[in-house]
Amino acid sequence: MSTRLSDYDYALPEHLIAKYPPARRGDSRLLVIHRGSHTWQDRMFADIIEYLNPGDVLVLNKTRVIPARLIGKRKTGGKAEVLLHQRLEGDMERWKVLVAPARKTREGERIFFKSPLSQQGEGVGGEVAPLSCEVERDLGEGEKIVRFNRIGSDFLNAIEAIGQVPLPPYLHRAAEASDKERYQTIYASTPGAVAAPTAGLHFTAVLLSQIEKKGITLAYVTLHTGLGTFRPVETEDVTKHRMHEEYFELDETNARIINDAKANGKRCIAVGTTTVRALETLAGVAQTKACTTPVTAGSGMSGIFIYPPYRFNVPDAIVTNFHLPRSTLLMMISAFAGREFMLQCYEHAIQAEYRFFSYGDAMLIL
Question: Which terminus of the chain, N or C, has fewer Cβ atoms within 10 Å?
């Protein structure tokens, strides 16, 4: 199996990048991929239920995207943009962020944001800012550690009022009002992600209800997707790429659902590469602890990097969107289904004019 970055490249026409979601949630296409026979089928996403069997477990990432793009002012009156990147220890107050302008914003400086109540005053000129952050440390290349003056639900309420949805950079457009709802799964419940687990965007309440009525169990993990998911791989030897870390957690109830299914020979279908990342990290934790179950409940930071060759421990099938060329996510699914076969599937998707990336169509890899 290749570890060369150039072997995970493909040419994508610009017009196939989905800049907006479909008019109705769930009205997406589905490329059903059969690893065993190296065949595929063109379907609609609602048809996914035909490929799920009673007793299967569908594992969903319940992370909720927060409006992580904050526009504020420095004490000088100059504009500053803060993009939340990764939550650090504590109760939401400390974050790794990207700041612009980076060179003008120094350690010890405070950035003030509009009031979430009045939308007036930024705390400049003697006023007390309803929301502000202090730059604690400069990490270089625009990345800094900041501490906000609000914690927990107070912090979340403030950014919900004044923040903007941080859309992926390849969409080349500003967030619109509709993105706040559409760039979010319908089952999102645990705030903390700054990028959506996009494979889950296709599910509707009706479809999930139909899936459960068929006898498929829903299980939930949390992995707070970070901006690192969009970070390009810059080394030709992919083994030298340093993977970003993301917070994950799995409770006892959902761990039991997954373990029981695996013990009874039923399939575990992971919705999204974020879910795969969480499950495989948890499997590694279980192996370290010499557990007899595939996964164990727990939480922590995942820095797992999955690329060929790799032996998967938990997922038997994966629901996922189409990923960027030369990306770690394309490498992950290549490890699952084979690099050459996956590139053939991508070539078919291009010829059939599937819509690509976050707001695009989906694949079911069986």
Answer: N
Same domain, 342 and 193: yes
Residue 170 lies in a domain: no
CA distances to 215, 253, 258, 275, 309 from 53, rounded to whole Å, are 7, 21, 15, 20, 28
Going by C-alpha positions, the residue among 11, 8, 359 that lies closest to residue 201 is 359
Are 290 and 141 members of one domain? no
pLDDT band at 125 (very low <50, low <70, confident <90, very high): very low
- Owning domain of residue 46: 5-65+180-365
pLDDT at 121 over 80: no
Q: Is residue 168 part of a domain?
A: no
Parallel/antiparallel/unpaired status of strands 268-271 and 57-61:
parallel
Cα distances from 29 to residues 48, 226, 316, in angstroms, run 10, 26, 21
For 229-285, give the DSSP string.
GGPPP--SBGGG-----EEEEE-HHHHHHHHHHHHTT--EEEESHHHHHHHHHHHHH
Are 78 and 28 in the same domain? no
What are the pLDDT digits (tens) for 252-305? 999 999 999 999 999 999 999 999 999 999 999 999 999 999 999 999 999 999
CA distance 359 to 21: 5
For the stretch 61-93, pLDDT in tens is 999 999 999 999 998 888 999 999 888 866 778
Domain match, 98 and 242 both: no
